[in-house]
C-alpha cells in the first residue's frame, strides 16, 4: 500500500513536503490578499488597522508552528524585496523601520505561537481552544513586540504606545473569534487541516 502523498513527497527544511510548501505559498498569498482592502488609522495612531492579522491567525491555526512561521517569513521577505504586499500598497525595507515595524515582525512569532498552541489541542481542538490560540499568538505576541518597538521609534512612552494600541483590541478580538470559527469548520470538513494530525502523519512516516 502506498503512503499518502504528503508523507512521501520530496521534502526540505524541517521535513516539508511539496504539499507543505504549496500550503505555505497559499497562506503567504492569503495574508497578502487580505491587505487589498487597505488600512485604517484611528485615534491618531501611526500603526494602521488591517485584515492581515486575520490571515496570520488562520495560518497559525491551520498550518501549525513551523509551516505558519515559514508562510509569514516568505511574505516578509517579499515585502523587504520591495513588493507592495502590505495593506495600503506598502513594501520595501522602510516598513521595517517605521512605527508598525514591531507589529509586522511580530507576525512571525505570532503565527508560530498560534500554531504551537493549536498543535497541543490534539486531533479535535475546540473553538475555545482555537480562540485562545488566536488571542495569545495572533494578538498578545504581536502586541508584545509591536508596542515597545512603536514606542522606541516614535519616541512615545511605553504607556502611551500601549494606550494607542487599545484601539486595535475590539477589531483583533473579532478577528480572533472569526478565525476560530473558520478554522474549526475547516478542520471538521478536512481533518488533515488539524496541525496535530499532520504531525502524527509525519511521525508515522518516520520524518521529524
Automatic annotation (TrEMBL):
GO terms for molecular function: biotin transmembrane transporter activity. It comes from the Bacteria. Its main location: membrane. The keyword Cell membrane applies. It is a multi-pass membrane protein. The chain crosses the membrane at residues 21-40, 68-87, 93-118, 127-149, 161-183. One of its GO terms (cellular component) is plasma membrane. It is found in: Cell membrane. The keyword Transmembrane helix applies. Keywords: Cell membrane, Membrane, Transmembrane, Transmembrane helix, Transport. InterPro entries: BioY. It holds the Pfam family BioY. Belongs to the BioY family. PANTHER family: BIOTIN TRANSPORTER BIOY, BIOTIN TRANSPORTER BIOY-RELATED. This is Biotin transporter. It comes from Streptosporangium carneum.
Amino acid at each position: 500500500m502506498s503512503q499518502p502523498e504528503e508523507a512521501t513527497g520530496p521534502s526540505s527544511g524541517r521535513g516539508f513536503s511539496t504539499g507543505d510548501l504549496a500550503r505555505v505559498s497559499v497562506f503567504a498569498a492569503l495574508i497578502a490578499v487580505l491587505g487589498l482592502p487597505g488600512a485604517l488609522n484611528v485615534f491618531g495612531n501611526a500603526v494602521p488597522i488591517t485584515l492581515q492579522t486575520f490571515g496570520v491567525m488562520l495560518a497559525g491555526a491551520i498550518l501549525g508552528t513551523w509551516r505558519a512561521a515559514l508562510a509569514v517569513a516568505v511574505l516578509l521577505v517579499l515585502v523587504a524585496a520591495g513588493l507592495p504586499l502590505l495593506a495600503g500598497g506598502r513594501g520595501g525595507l522602510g516598513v521595517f523601520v517605521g512605527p508598525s515595524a514591531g507589529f509586522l515582525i511580530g507576525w512571525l512569532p505570532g503565527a508560530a505561537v498560534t500554531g504551537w498552541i493549536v498543535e497541543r489541542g490534539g486531533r479535535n481542538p475546540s473553538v475555545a481552544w482555537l480562540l485562545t490560540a488566536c488571542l495569545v499568538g495572533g494578538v498578545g505576541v504581536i502586541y508584545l513586540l509591536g508596542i515597545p518597538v512603536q514606542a522606541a521609534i516614535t519616541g512615545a512612552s511605553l504607556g502611551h504606545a500601549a494606550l494607542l494600541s487599545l484601539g486595535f483590541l475590539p477589531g483583533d478580538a473579532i478577528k480572533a473569534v472569526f478565525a476560530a470559527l473558520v478554522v474549526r469548520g475547516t478542520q471538521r470538513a478536512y481533518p488533515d487541516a488539524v496541525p496535530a494530525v499532520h504531525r502524527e502523519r509525519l511521525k508515522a512516516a518516520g520524518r521529524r
